[in-house]
Amino acid sequence: MDFEKVITERYSVRKFENKHLEQEVIDKLLHAGHIAPTGCNYQPQRILVLNNDESIAKLKGCTKCHFDAPCAMLICYNRDESWTRSCDGAQSAPVDASIVATHIMLEATNLGVGSCWVMYFDPFKMREAFNIPENIIPHALLVMGYPHESAAPIEMHSKTRPLDEVVVYDSF
Q: How many domains does the chain divide into?
C-alpha cells in the first residue's frame, strides 16, 4: 500500500474479529517500531506484547477501552535511557515512544490490521498486572486485530481543521 493510502485509510478500529494475529504479522509490526527514529538513537522504547487469552484478560482489568481486541501492545519507555535537552531538561523518551507507536499503527494499516491508540488505562494497574519495573513508564496502549466486517471510522474521523488554522510560517 502506498503511504498516502495508509495515512488516509487508517482509523481507530473499535471492533475486531475474534482471531489472534499471526506471529509473522506481530514481527512485522515490531520491526516497524524498532526502526523508528528516537532522540540521539537512544531507543528508550520498551514494548509489551499482549497476545494470549491470559494477558488480554489482565488487560481488561486495566482499561475499559480494550474493545475486545485479540492483541495489544503497551508502548513504554525507559526513563533512564532518554535523551535530555540541555537548555530545559525536556526528555525525548515520551516523544520517542509516540513515534514508535505511530510507526506500528501505520504498519498495521499497511498489513490489513486494525488498531486503536488508547490513553485511557490505569498505568498503576498495568504496572502491577504485568510486573513493569519502576523505570519503565507505560505511555500508550495499541489495541489491535483484524477489523470486524462492521468496523468503521467514527463520524468525526475525517474532520480536520483547515490547514491555515494549524500551520504558521516564519513566526507566530
A: 1
